[in-house]
Amino acid sequence: MLARQSLGGELARVLIIDDDSTLRGAIALMLSTKGHTVTQATDANTGVIEMRKSPPDLIVSDMQMPGGGAPMLFKSMDDQPHLEKIPCILVSSMPAERLKDWVPESPTRRYLQKPIKWDLLGKLVDELLT
To answer: Are 41 and 64 spatial neighbours (Cβ–Cβ below 8 Å)?
Structure first.
């Protein structure tokens, strides 16, 4: 299964939104090593600004963080048709059932529990980009 490539040759543009710099950096390293172009944001507000500047092919976001977290992020995305269909992976220490109460399921959303299982993150990225 190959992830889609952009016109520039890199695999995909991925926006990582997480207030934990260590985890954000580890995810960025993993994805950039696979050939993806990575942009990072420290909170939901900054993530929305980055999305508006250059819509990514995929978002990996923490659920709870300053600036309203993922619920605020998705509200901003839903208000803009060109952003609402961007696939997302939500990362949280909350059980998936609770996450679904905060952010409804969608064919373009996946949930990943902390601590991150790196092989599963890789599979979810590939799945959402194909």
So the answer is: no
Write the CB contacts of 88 (distance below 8 Å, at least 6 apart in sequence).
Answer: 58, 59, 60, 61, 70, 74, 108, 109, 110, 128
Domain of 38: which CATH number? 3.40.50.2300
3-state secondary structure of 59: strand
Structural domain count, the chain: 1
The boundaries of the domain holding residue 121 are 13-129
Distance CA(55)–CA(23), nearest Å, equals: 22
The CA-to-CA distance between both ends of the chain, in Å, stands at: 8
pLDDT tens for 41-94 read 999 999 999 999 999 999 999 998 877 788 888 888 878 888 888 999 999 988
Residue 58 lies in a domain: yes
Cα–Cα distances (Å) from 100 to 71, 79, 96, in that order, read 11, 20, 6
| Run of H or E including 61 | strand 58-62
- Give percent above pLDDT 90 in the chain: 57
Three-class DSSP category at 16? strand
